[in-house]
Write a structure and sequence with these properties.
The complex is a heterotrimer of chains A (about 300), B (about 550) and C (about 325). With about 300 residues, chain A is mostly helical. Chain A is built from twelve helices and no strands. The two termini of chain A are about 35 Å apart. The model of chain A has no long low-confidence stretch (mean pLDDT about 85). Chain B is α+β, with helices and mostly antiparallel strands and about 550 residues long. A seven-stranded mixed beta sheet of chain B has the order 10-11-12-1-13-21-14, with helices on both faces. Chain B starts with a helix and ends with a strand. Helix content of chain C is about 80%, strand content about 0%. The longest helix of chain C has about 40 residues. The chains are: A mainly alpha (about 300), B alpha+beta (about 550), C mainly alpha (about 325). Chains B and C meet through helix 1, helix 4, helix 5, strand 9 and helix 8 of B and helix 2, helix 3, helix 5, helix 7 and helix 11 of C.
C-alpha cells in the first residue's frame, strides 16, 4: 500500500482516535465560546428552518407557470421583479423567489440523502470491520482503500454518467458512494480504538455478549467523529451534486427546484438573467460554508489536543 | 465598448444585489443590420466557431453538419442550391435531364473545371465517383455511407445487413462533358438528392493515391484513410491547408483556380469550440468572427452588442409523437385530436423557441412542394380537448412522455423545457403526462424508435433536400415502433405519391396526403418549425444563410 | 530503491485488470452504444442492428472483453466515435494540456499557499490569521465551476483582461513539439506563442488552484504551529539561535513534510476539478475529452480514459512515495 494512501487513511484515523475520549459537555462549552462555531451553527440552523418552512412561506406555487410572467417571457428575455414576484420569473415563467425558497428543501434532500446513504453503508462496512477484526477487517478495508484511491468527483461523475439515465436518485447515489469509504474507515478506526479501552475490556471480561458490547459500548462512543465527518460531508455533497448538474448529469426534470439543478440549468441564461445562476450559487456557498464551519469547529472541539 | 459595459453592469448588479430584489435591466438599442451588398473587400482571414470536430473530410463517409461545413467549402456537387433557398441550381452540372420514366439522368457538365490537384473534372471523373460508391467494399465503409445508403439503398455487393436492392445501375461518360446515370427505379428524391453534400465529387487521382476506400475497423469504431483525414481533393472555392488537432483549428485557403468567382477571403479558419457559452464569449472578445446556432437565449444580448444574428429559413419540424401501441385510448382519433387541441403551441413558440419560429400545421415546412394550405388546424382550445376526451369516454388519462436529454437540435434547442411546457398544457386538459427523461445517445432513441416504450415523445427532423417524401415519407411511409400506428391506406398513399414523376402531380398527391394525415390519421402532432440562426460580427458581409445549412463562404468578405 | 519501485508497479497490475473488467462490463450493459453514435441522428433501428454485427457487438460479452484486452495489450484502444481518431492520439494531445493546467494550478496554490500559511501561523489569533482561515473555508465552499464562470465573466468578458477560453489564439499558428503549449513556445523560441499560452493559462489555473490553495494554506498553518510547539524548536530558541536560522533550518523543513503529502493528495482532487474547469474554459484536455465522451456516449474513449485515470493515480502515488523517501530518510529505512 502506498504511503500516500496511508496518509489519507491516517488523516481519517486521527479523527477516529478522538472517539470516546470526548466529554460532550466539555466540547459544547468550547464550541459556545467560538464565534466560528456559532456562525456555522447559525447558518446551518437557518438553512434547516428554511428547508422545513419554505413550502409554507413561499408566496407563490413554485411549480406553476404564471400568465403574468409568461406574457413577457421570450427565449432571450426573462421578466424581472414585478408586483407579486419579488425576483421575477424563471426560464419557464415560474416564480423565481418561491423556487429559490423551496430549493432549500430539495438541496437538503440531496445533501442529507447522499450523506445518510454514505453514512449507513460506511457504518455497516466499518462496523463489521471494527467489530470482527481479522480477515473481515482486512478484506473490507482493502475494498475501501480501492475506493478511496479514486478522486471522489471523478467517481461520482463516472457513476452518474454510467447510470442509464439521470435522476435525483442517481445523483444522490453517485455522491453517496464517494463518501462510503471515509465513513467506513472512520468508524472502524474509532471502534478499534475502543476495543482496547478499559470499559470494553471490562465488559468483555464480565461475559457480556459481543453484540451487546458492540451496540451498547463501542458504537455509541465512536459516534463523535462520525458526526463531525457527516457535517463536513453534507457541504461537499451539495457542491458535488451541483457539479454533476453543471456537467449535465443531474436530474433532468426541469420542474424540480433544487439549487444545484437551478444553477446547472441556468447556464444558458447567464446573459439573459444572471440572477438565475447567481442566487442559487450563493445559496449553495452559504450552506456549504455553514456546514464546513460547524464541522471544523466540532472537530476542533472534540480534539483532545485542544483540551490543554 | 458598449458591449462589455452593459454586460459588466449586469454582473456587478447581480453581485451587488445578493439578497435584494434584482434589477430589471433593459436591453440597449438594437443595431439594425446593414446590408452592404455588392462586392466586398478581398483578402483577410475569417475565423468561424464550429461546435464540434469533423469526423473526416471525405464527403461520402459523413452525415453531420460539423463535418459538412468544411467539406462544403472544398467540394462541389453536380446540382447545388440557389443561395439562401432549397431550390435547385446548376453546380458542376450545368443542366440535368431525366428520361421519361425517370430512370436515366443526363448531366451536361461544366467545362474548364479543375480539381485541387490540377486534374481535370469531366464525365469520367463523375462516373468514377458513382462507381466508387456503388462498388465500395467492406461492411465498415458501407455502413458509414449513410446518405448514399438512404438514396441509393444498396451496393454492388451488400456486406452489411441493412442494405437493400441497389437503385444505381450504371454510369456512362457519353463524351468529355456528358455523363449519363442509369437507375433501376425512379425515386421522388431525385433530382434534389444530387445536391446532397455527401454526394460531392472527388478527384479520382487523389482517391486512388490516398487509398480513399480503406476504412478500417478499430475497436468499436473506424479509422479513415489519408484521403479522408489529410488530402480531401475537390473542386471547391477553398482548399485544405491543415487540421491542427491540438489547437482544434481547420485552416482552409483560397483555391486560386476555382471555376466560379474566386473566394474573397485569403483564409478561412474553423475553430472548434464545443461549449455554447464559450462560442458566444469568444465572439464578444473578438477572437472569432462568427458561429453557428447561437442559443435562442443569446439573440438579444448578441444583437445589442452589435452582432448580426441571421435566422435561416426554417427547414425542419418538431413533433409530439404518439405511440398507440401501449395505451389503447390513444388508438382513438378523438383522443389524439384532444391532445392536439390541448397543447398551447402558440405560447410555446413565442416563449421558448427562437425568434421567427412558427407553429407547424403539418409535417413539413411551407417551402416544400406538397404543403397543403388547407390542412385541418388545431388551435389551442382546452374546452374542446376536454369535450373530445369525454366523447371518447376517456378520463384520468396518464401517459408516459419520453423526452431526450443531453441534446440540442435546431428544431428543439432545449427539449426538457419544451417537454415541461407541453406536459403542463396537457395537465390543464386533464391529461397526466409523466415525463420520462432519457439521454439522447444513452437510450432515448432505443426506447422510442426500437422498443416503443413510450406513449408520447418529442422528436424532430431537419430536411435533407426539398422533397415531401424526405419529411412525411420518412415519418409515416411504413409502420414504425415510434408511432405504433399501422394504417395500410396511409402507407399506400405515401408510396403512390412518391412514385409520381411529374413534379406538379407529385406535389398535388402529397398535398392530399398531408390533408389526410392531419384530419383522418393524426399519428402524431406537428409542433413547430424553428429557424436555426447564424451569427457574425459586423465586419463580416456576404454570408447567405441557407435553409439546408448549406452555407458557402466564398462570397464572404471581412473588413 | 529500484526494487521498491518494481514491487509497487507489480502490485498495481491486478487492480488495473479488475478495473478494466468493471469498466468494460459496465459500459457494455448501458443502453445506447457505439453503433447509434456512429450512424448519427438519422439512423434506423435496423441499421444500428446491422452495424452492431459488423462491430462484433452482438457477440457474448466475455468474448468481447478478451478481444478488448487483446487489443489493449497490443496498444490499440480503438478510435473515438466523435472524432474518428485513435483514442491514444487524442489522449496524447489532451494529457499535456491537462498536466500543464494542473501544474499551473498547483504552482499557483503552492507559491501563494505556503507563505500565506506560514504568515498566518506566525500571526496566530490575530486579524491576518483569522481572515486567512475564514478565506480558506470560503474557498472550499465555492463550487469550482462557478468560480470559473465568475472569473471568466468578470475578467474575460467584462474587463477583457484575459482570453475567455482555449489554450492559444488562432492567429498564433504554433509549432507543436511536446504539446505543452508554453514549453513548445520556449523550445521553438516562438516567444509570442509562449506568452499567449501563458496568458490563456491564468484564469483556468486560478479557478482550479483555489481549493488546493485553501487546503495548502491550512495545512501549512497547522503544521507550522505544530512544529513551533516541538521541543527541538524550543531548545533552539533557548540556545539563542537566530530566529531566521531556526525558521529555515528547523521550522520550515519539518513543517514541509505534511505539506508535501497534501500537495500529492491534491493531484487527485485536481483531476476531478479539471473536468469542471476545462469544461468552463474549453481547455481541450482530458476533462474536456471525458465530458464530451460522456455526453456523446463515446465508449472507446471513456474506456481508455477511465483506465488511464487508474494508471495515473497509481503512478502519482508512486512518485509521492519516492519524493517522500527523499525528503525523510526514516521512510527509506522502514
Amino acid at each position: 500500500m502506498t504511503s500516500l494512501l496511508k496518509r489519507k487513511r491516517a488523516r481519517v484515523d486521527a479523527l477516529a482516535e478522538s472517539a470516546g475520549t470526548s466529554l460532550a459537555a466539555d466540547a459544547v462549552k468550547r464550541m459556545l465560546r467560538s464565534p466560528v462555531a456559532l456562525l456555522g451553527a447559525f447558518l446551518v440552523l437557518l438553512f434547516l428552518v428554511l428547508a422545513i418552512v419554505a413550502p409554507f412561506i413561499a408566496p407563490k406555487d413554485p411549480y406553476q407557470r404564471y400568465p403574468e410572467l409568461l406574457a413577457e417571457l421570450r427565449p432571450d428575455f426573462i421578466p424581472g421583479a414585478q408586483p407579486g414576484f419579488l425576483l421575477g420569473g424563471d426560464e419557464l415563467g415560474r416564480d423565481f423567489f418561491s423556487r429559490l425558497l423551496v430549493g432549500a428543501q430539495q438541496s437538503l434532500v440531496v445533501g442529507v440523502g447522499a450523506t445518510l446513504i454514505g453514512l449507513v453503508l460506511g457504518m455497516i462496512i466499518g462496523g463489521l470491520a471494527g467489530a470482527f477484526g481479522g480477515w473481515v477487517d482486512s478484506w473490507l478495508m482493502r475494498f475501501t482503500d480501492i475506493m478511496l484511491s479514486i478522486p471522489s468527483l471523478l467517481l461520482a461523475i463516472s457513476i452518474a454518467a454510467l447510470a442509464s439515465r439521470g435522476s435525483q436518485t442517481t445523483v444522490i447515489i453517485a455522491v453517496a458512494v464517494t463518501t462510503v469509504p471515509i465513513f467506513a474507515r472512520l468508524l472502524r478506526g474509532a471502534m478499534l480504538a475502543q476495543r482496547h479501552s478499559d470499559h470494553v475490556l471490562a465488559a468483555t471480561a464480565l461475559g457480556v455478549r459481543r453484540r451487546t458490547v458492540v451496540f451498547r459500548h463501542m458504537l455509541p462512543n465512536s459516534l463523535g467523529p462520525v458526526i463531525v465527518q457527516a457535517t463536513l460531508t453534507l457541504a461537499t455533497a451539495i457542491i458535488e451534486a451541483a457539479s454533476l448538474s453543471f456537467l449535465g448529469l443531474g436530474d433532468p426534470d426541469p420542474s424540480r427546484a433544487e439549487w444545484g439543478l437551478m444553477l446547472g440549468n441556468s447556464q444558458r441564461y447567464i446573459d439573459v438573467k444572471p440572477e438565475l445562476a447567481f442566487y442559487p450559487a450563493v445559496a449553495i456557498i452559504i450552506v456549504a460554508l455553514g456546514f464546513t464551519l460547524l464541522g471544523e469547529s466540532l472537530r476542533e472541539a472534540l480534539d483532545p489536543k485542544n483540551r490543554r | 465598448m458598449l458591449q462589455f459595459r452593459t454586460a459588466r453592469r449586469r454582473w456587478l448588479a447581480a453581485i451587488g444585489l445578493t439578497g435584494v430584489a434584482a434589477l430589471a435591466l433593459s436591453a440597449c438599442a438594437q443595431s439594425e443590420r446593414t446590408d452592404d451588398s455588392g462586392s466586398g473587400k478581398v483578402g483577410g482571414t475569417m475565423v468561424f466557431g464550429a461546435a464540434g470536430e469533423p469526423k473526416n473530410f471525405d464527403p461520402i463517409f459523413n452525415d453531420d453538419g460539423e463535418s459538412f461545413r468544411p467539406i462544403r467549402q472544398m467540394f462541389d456537387t453536380l446540382i447545388t442550391y440557389k443561395r439562401g433557398t432549397a431550390d435547385l441550381a446548376p453546380g458542376l452540372a450545368e443542366k440535368w435531364t431525366p428520361s421519361e420514366d425517370g430512370k436515366s439522368w443526363t448531366f451536361d457538365l461544366r467545362k474548364n473545371v479543375k480539381f485541387h490537384d490540377g486534374t481535370p473534372f469531366n464525365a469520367e471523373a463523375v462516373c468514377f465517383n458513382f462507381d466508387r460508391w456503388f462498388n465500395m467494399k467492406g461492411a465498415a465503409a458501407q455502413s458509414q455511407m449513410i446518405y448514399y445508403g438512404d438514396v441509393f439503398e444498396g451496393f454492388a455487393k451488400n456486406e452489411g445487413d441493412a442494405a437493400g436492392e441497389p437503385v444505381y445501375k450504371s454510369c456512362e461518360a457519353k463524351d468529355e462533358h456528358t455523363a449519363v446515370l442509369n437507375l433501376n427505379k425512379y425515386k421522388g428524391a431525385f433530382p434534389a438528392a444530387f445536391g446532397l453534400t455527401a454526394l460531392s465529387i472527388s478527384s479520382p487521382d487523389a482517391l486512388k493515391k490516398y487509398d480513399a476506400d480503406n476504412v478500417a475497423q478499430s475497436g468499436d469504431s473506424f479509422t479513415y484513410p489519408a484521403y479522408a483525414t489529410e488530402h480531401p481533393t475537390g473542386t471547391g472555392a477553398f482548399k485544405l491547408e491543415k487540421f491542427d488537432k491540438a489547437n482544434k483549428t481547420i485552416t482552409l485557403v483560397r483555391n486560386e483556380d476555382y471555376w466560379g468567382e474566386k473566394a474573397k477571403l485569403d483564409k478561412l479558419i474553423f475553430k472548434i469550440i464545443p461549449d455554447e457559452n464559450a462560442r458566444k464569449q469568444e465572439l464578444k472578445a473578438g477572437t472569432i468572427d462568427g458561429y453557428d446556432f447561437p442559443s435562442p437565449a443569446d439573440y438579444n444580448s448578441l444583437k445589442s452588442d452589435g452582432f448580426n444574428v441571421t435566422p435561416r429559413p426554417a427547414f425542419n419540424i418538431l413533433y409530439l409523437g404518439i405511440n398507440g401501441a401501449n395505451n389503447p385510448a390513444l388508438k382513438d382519433l378523438r383522443v389524439r385530436q384532444a391532445i392536439a387541441y390541448a397543447v398551447n403551441r402558440d405560447q410555446l413558440v413565442k416563449t421558448k423557441l427562437p425568434l421567427g419560429a412558427e407553429v407547424a400545421t403539418q409535417f413539413m415546412p411551407k417551402t416544400v412542394a406538397g404543403y397543403a394550405e388547407d390542412a385541418q388546424q388545431y388551435p389551442h382550445d382546452v374546452a374542446k380537448a376536454k369535450e373530445l376526451l369525454t366523447q371518447a369516454g376517456v378520463s384520468n388519462l396518464t401517459l408516459n412522455f419520453y423526452v431526450p436529454t443531453e441534446v440540442s437540435r435546431p428544431y428543439m434547442p432545449n427539449p426538457s423545457e419544451i417537454a415541461a411546457v407541453i406536459a403542463d398544457d396537457l395537465k390543464a386538459a386533464g391529461i397526466n403526462a409523466q415525463i420520462v427523461s432519457r439521454p439522447w445517445n444513452g437510450g432515448y432513441k432505443d426506447d422510442v424508435q426500437k422498443l416503443g416504450k413510450h406513449d408520447l415523445h418529442l422528436l424532430g427532423w431537419t430536411g435533407d433536400y426539398n422533397d415531401a417524401g424526405n419529411f412525411v415519407g420518412t415519418f409515416f411511409g411504413r409502420e414504425k415502433k415510434e408511432f405504433g400506428f399501422a394504417d395500410q391506406a396511409m402507407f399506400d398513399a405515401i408510396a403512390a405519391a412518391d412514385a409520381v414523376v411529374d413534379q406538379t402531380k407529385h406535389a398535388d398527391a402529397y398535398k392530399q396526403v398531408n390533408r389526410d394525415i392531419m384530419s383522418k390519421y393524426l399519428p402524431a402532432i406537428p409542433v413547430s418549425h424553428s429557424p436555426p440562426a447564424i451569427v457574425v460580427s459586423s465586419k463580416i458581409s456576404g454570408l447567405v444563410p441557407s435553409p439546408l445549412t448549406d452555407e458557402r463562404f466564398d462570397t464572404v468578405s471581412k473588413g | 530503491m529500484l526494487r521498491f519501485i518494481v514491487r509497487r508497479l507489480l502490485q498495481a497490475i491486478p487492480t488495473l485488470l479488475i478495473l478494466s473488467l468493471l469498466v468494460f462490463v459496465w459500459l457494455r450493459s448501458l443502453p445506447g452504444g457505439p453503433s447509434g453514435a456512429l450512424l448519427g441522428d438519422k439512423a434506423t433501428p435496423e441499421k444500428i442492428e446491422a452495424l452492431n454485427k459488423v462491430l462484433g457487438l452482438d457477440q457474448p460479452i466475455y468474448i468481447q472483453y478478451f478481444k478488448f484486452l487483446g487489443r489493449i495489450l497490443s496498444g490499440d484502444f480503438g478510435s473515438s466515435l466523435i472524432s474518428g481518431e485513435p483514442v491514444v492520439a487524442e489522449i496524447g494531445r489532451a494529457l499535456p494540456a491537462t498536466i500543464e493546467l494542473s501544474l499551473a494550478a498547483l504552482l499557483f496554490a503552492v507559491v501563494l499557499g505556503i507563505p500565506l500559511g506560514y504568515l498566518a501561523a506566525s500571526h496566530r489569533g490575530r486579524f491576518l490569521d483569522n481572515s486567512t482561515v475564514i478565506g480558506t473555508l470560503v474557498g472550499v465552499a465555492v463550487p469550482v465551476f462557478f468560480l470559473g464562470i465568475l472569473l471568466k465573466q468578470l475578467f474575460a468578458q467584462d474587463l477583457a483582461l484575459f482570453p475567455p477560453s482555449g489554450r492559444q489564439d488562432v492567429t498564433i499558428d504554433p509549432t507543436h513539439v511536446t504539446n505543452f503549449a508554453v514549453l513548445d513556445g520556449l523550445l521553438t523560441q516562438e516567444w509570442d506563442a509562449a506568452a499567449d499560452a501563458l496568458w490563456h493559462l491564468v484564469l483556468p489555473a486560478v479557478a482550479l488552484g483555489t481549493i488546493p490553495l485553501a487546503v495548502i494554506v491550512r495545512i501549512t498553518r497547522a503544521s507550522v504551529l505544530d512544529v513551533l510547539n516541538e521541543d527541538f524548536v524550543r531548545t533552539a530558541n533557548a540556545k539563542g539561535l537566530q530566529a531566521q536560522l531556526i525558521r529555515r533550518r528547523h521550522v520550515l523543513r519539518n513543517a514541509m513534510l505534511p505539506v508535501s503529502t497534501t500537495i500529492g493528495l491534491q493531484t487527485g482532487l485536481l483531476l476531478g476539478g479539471a473536468v469542471l474547469t476545462e469544461r468552463v474554459f474549453v481547455w481541450g484536455g482530458l476533462g474536456s475529452l471525458l465530458a464530451q465522451g460522456i455526453e456523446r456516449r463515446d465508449y472507446p474513449r471513456l474506456q481508455a480514459l477511465l483506465l488511464l485515470a487508474a494508471v495515473v493515480y497509481v503512478l502519482v502515488n508512486l512518485l509521492v512515495d519516492i519524493s517522500y523517501a527523499i525528503i525523510d530518510p526514516r521512510v527509506r529505512a522502514s
